[in-house]
Structure prediction request, 755 residues.
Amino acid sequence: MPEQLLFAMEVTLNGLMAGVLYALVALGFVLIFKASGIFNYAQGVMALFAALTLVGIMEGQIPFSHLINATLGTDIHHFGWHVPGILAIVLTMVVMVGLAWAVNQFVMRHLVNQEPIILFMATIGLAYFLEGLGDIMWGSDIKTLDVGLPQGINTWIDETTFEAFGYGFFIDNLDIVATVIAALLVIALVIFSQYTKQGRAMRAVADDHQAALSVGISLNFIWVMVWSVAGFVALVAGIMWGSKSGVQFSLSLIALKALPVLMLGGFTSIPGAIVGGLIIGVGEKLFEFAIGPMVGGATENWFAYVLALVFLVFRPQGLFGERIIERV
Amino acid sequence: MKLTFTMAAVAAIMAAAPASADLTFSALSYRTGPYAANGIPFADGYQDYFTLLNERDGGIGGEKINLVECETGYNTEKGVECYESTKGSGALVYQPLSTGITYQLIPKATADSIPVHSMGYGRTSAKNGAVFPYIFNYPANYWDGASVAIKHLLDENGGDLSGKKIALVYHNSAYGKEPIRTLEELAKKHGYELSLLPVDHPGQEQKSQWLQIRREKPDYVIMWGWGVMNQVAIQEAVNIRYPMDQFIGIWWSGSENDVKPAGPKADGYKALTFHNLGMDYPLYDDMKKYVIDAGKAAGAGDQVGTVLYNRGMYAAMLAAEAAKTAQEMSGTAQITPAQMRDGMEHLVITEEKMAGLGLPNFGPEFEVTCENHGGNGFAAVSQWNAAEGHFNLITDYMQSDQEVLAPLVEADSKAYAEESGITPGCM
Prediction:
């Protein structure tokens, strides 16, 4: 097999894996938009906040310790214990549910029936608030996140492809784990939204929240639930991205990777986020591989948006988005 | 009652405001945002050194030091706002800690006659003081860094790099592109093959670049990264099993923050530096006594002795020494920014002086002149020891290839002078 074709195959596989990671971030946006029509600008920061909280709990870090020390003149930083990864994830989820309740209680419920742009602006404020809160709670140093996920080249794939093609493919174990988790997450979310009472209530609210209210569905409960689920998705994304680079404040910028995925897949479709992620991942990697060297490289960021724009021209609602028809 | 309140308010304002005789230094720092993890240790080191001088020596030349810190978030627009809002404080020198901010401040600070010290960053050709009278970038600049990296590789290969493949993984920005011209010129001289691999900001996704490295198998990888780009690059290098001792970062890619997330497999990673590392210096005894144990350390006090803390401390030390020089030259302790500029232009750093300051063998010797605002271009190579958890110097300080760099500095500064209508000359 020609060498360039093998390289292209390897790039494609890695693009698919990268796409899954993008989709993990995009899923959080989709969930909240689907249920409430809010484009949650804070989704990237939620991933950061969740990851910071997870590491903080695992390491037994005392939240707000710098503030406490500065105020009281103490010198406390750690509780002196380490919490196992699984338990820390559960405790982090409790924090994220608390955050979802607080977001609804103090922000969103006061903005019911406001224009989408008002809600969007509120999430911008929320993003900056959460970033500052995360800083004060856990500090801004780079934290190593190790919840036991494997990283590095998958030797089985490397050896198998080497025997078959004379060239071993590189696939990162972390990416494989992310793919499996994303698949499970999508299946769970689809089952939840299609076959559970709460899921059906969520869809009812998404379709028409006034009609949902009239049949006794609690808008507050649904919004807290949706923000909690988005918090869980943010935690998963934070774990995956944080394992690659350490947990640090630039983690919030992963939202930039989700935007073209949303444009392409549609803001209201869970499968759309996955398919959009895969298309963006493969598209940007193949373009960088084939065209990048001719134009000086570093094409991935802008090409992802170009690709999304091309899709938008032909399907403004995105590949899987709901067509919005307003009749006079 | 009203009078008492007014008097109390006036007293409070007077207490909060710096005394007019203070020597004011400005630090454009970033303790928040995506780059805070790197901005904090530098800012802490910078502040702690001045605190030490205030507490131990009563300031510089009997004048207390007033440090004005302004948060930029590593954002160029905010950095310029910081400059505009603090320049009225009488700041003697600015340390922008950002290449982007430095580029914006070059014309502004020059017009305002306030010196800028971009230590190891900023515009490389500002080394030519005849064109950039208010900009200083000693003791080393990016082109020095690129040249010293190649010099180290020459040493490792018996002086011959012909036929070797070297890849530059760089942040796709003005900062990241700085070494390209130098590396290209050195490639002509030494016969190595250079490949360029730009990484888009912020650098969280680098799979394409590292797959290319895996395919092309360069003998060495040089990195010009910052922030998350560094951590991801080192992790990706670990993932593809690239030999860490063949991977060299510029000094902004060589802090503990960059290697720790990759764990023990980052062991052996190399980075350039223009100052020494660790806390094994007499100065740290004083720092402990007068600043840390006295509860006067900047920030949380948890960055002391890290690579970037040492760099911030070194920057403050160079600023203080330039201020002393300016005081000696002008015969007054209360110097102006223009006199500070003169002090910086006549700064001489010798080993004897460094030892006297409690920092023996901490940095290279150099002498600043009008024609040379960048020092002598000495840098060394450090290597990460994952088991011990710190970088160690593994080479002596090496001088960059001045034969190649001097014409580049001359050409670039000349082009800037022509663009800006500047007639080169010494003040």
Observations:
- The mean pLDDT of chain A is 91.
- The interface with chain B takes residues 7, 10-11, 14, 17-18, 66, 69, 73, 132, 135, 139-142, 144-146, 151-153, 170, 172, 241, 244-246, 248-254, 257, 285, 288-289, 292, 296-298, 300-301 of chain A (CB under 8 Å).
- Chain A has one domain: 3-314.
- Residues 133 and 253 of chain A are 17 Å apart (CA to CA).
